[in-house]
Write a structure and sequence with these properties.
Number of domains: 1
CATH architecture: 3-Layer(aba) Sandwich
Oligomer: single chain
Number of strands: 7
Mean pLDDT: 85
Shape: globular
Largest sheet: 7 strands, mixed
């Protein structure tokens, strides 16, 4: 069996051949497992708000997040049919939007000095990602929005977006690798953070886990200048990913 066929078989097994508790489970330590934990936290606490992703590339994690969310919707539907009245009468929050931010043209110009993150790497196109999302059921509209451009342009000029009209953040997935991009991502989503928001940094321990580079540096500086926001580590995932839960000192959104 060649490598391509082997990969196809593994993919089929994960999607079709194994039950849900294996394909999406707490003991998975990849991005899907991380999203499973994040959505589990959101659903358990009935936390309002949507999913924000910075650095979408080919759309894999965006689609995975949506698929995991759909599984939890199925669980909520089962709760609504429970013989226990208190379960049926829960006011479940199922209004979820999915927001994805990317240049959709590869990494922007940067001074990180890392060949993995050099300008132009991680090429994708908005059309390709949009088509993949549509096939998975993520159709662009009021509940699904793909934002194209450099992150630092989204709050100013012709590319600016109306943050006020977006949902609060239940989950924030920052997978943009670069310090400057992470700084801009945190600035965009800061007004949407609430008590209990999960923030995932997919490349938190890149650059040898240096506090002077990448997403680590961006978070340290963000917390230093926004003292009303604190974060607490909740789990690590994959090779260099780290998830946090947000604590706010003032009233939640």
């Amino acid at each position: 069996m060649n490598l391509e066929k082997a990969k196809a078989l593994i993919d089929w097994c994960l999607k079709k051949g194994f039950p849900t508790y294996i394909t999406h489970a707490l003991n998975r330590n990849d991005i899907v497992g991380a999203l499973y934990r994040a959505w589990g936290h959101v659903v358990t606490n009935n936390l309002k708000g949507g999913y924000y992703e910075f650095g979408t590339y080919h759309g894999r994690s965006l689609i995975a997040s949506y698929e995991v969310w759909k599984e939890y919707v199925g669980w909520v539907d089962a709760e609504k049919r429970s013989p226990e009245q208190w379960r049926r009468e829960q006011n479940w929050n199922l209004d979820r939007c999915f927001y994805a931010f990317d240049t959709f043209s590869g990494m922007p110009e940067n001074s990180e000095g890392n060949n993995m993150f050099a300008e132009g790497t991680y090429q994708s196109t908005l059309e390709t990602v949009s088509a993949k999302c549509k096939k998975a059921g993520l159709v662009q509209g009021s509940n699904v929005q793909l934002f194209q451009g450099a992150f630092d342009k989204f709050l100013q000029g012709p590319q600016s977006i109306d943050i006020e009209n977006l949902q609060p953040a239940a989950i924030i997935n920052i997978d943009c690798d670069l310090y400057a991009s992470a700084v801009a991502a945190l600035k965009i989503v800061k007004p949407k953070m609430q008590q209990g928001t999960i923030i995932m940094f997919d490349d938190y321990n890149c650059f040898n886990a240096s506090n002077e580079e990448g997403e680590r540096r961006a978070l340290i500086e963000f917390l230093a200048t926004n003292t009303h926001i604190e974060v607490e580590k909740v789990y690590s995932y994959a090779f260099v990913g780290q998830a946090f839960v947000v604590h706010r000192k003032e009233k939640s959104l």
